[in-house]
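Justification of resources, computational component.

The compute hours requested in this renewal are based largely on the per-chain cost of generating structure records like the one below. Each record pairs the submitted sequence with a full structure-token output. That output is archived, and it is also reused by downstream analysis tasks.
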Amino acid sequence: MINIAIDGPAGAGKSTAAKLAAKELGFIYIDTGALYRSIGVAALRKGYDTTDAEKVNSLLPEISLSLKFVDGEQRVILNGEDVSREIRLPEASMAASNVSAIPEVRAFLLDMQKKLARENNCLMDGRDIGTVILPDAELKIFLTASAEIRADRRYKELIEKGTPKDYGELLSEIKQRDYNDSHRAVAPLKPAEDAYMLDSSDMTLEEVVAKIVSLAKEAEK
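The structure output for this chain reads:
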């Protein structure tokens, strides 16, 4: 199987670019962040503080997660319910950052992610794919962009979805999430030593996708 790992900070465009690149390559796309977001949503629904490891861990035995691929589109199923839209709300993003710092949560999801990679040609994105989940991936990419560019992209995305949010608040959240993700004790956000560094600040989505596909084809040779 050919595995491609794409890591990078929140809002760098990993999910969108990875999804399009996977489609062009004929691979399945696995958005691991969606799994952490789902656990965050489960905790929020209970009214739990998502930084409270004890309470979040108490939920894990009650959580059933699965991924479905419908016409190449990943759908996330939490306890039988499709939560693909709910996990994209801003509060789910910060919740994901919080729960992903909990070792038991990472262990809970590790086997699922590795199994998907063993069984499929896949393009998987997240925060620790190249460093922890798929350290032997044929291609590792670290996709990033400035915090300001990422906040602006998110701002426009939320306006299009009809759920606008203040730009300054979004920028603050992104910087906080960057700090949380890169300073957590378990599997912090960082490039793998052999990752290709790709800064998308001044690139169009089409250019990013084309670069990923080009790198993937080189890796397959």
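The first strand starts at residue 3 and ends at 7. The chain has nine helices and eight strands.
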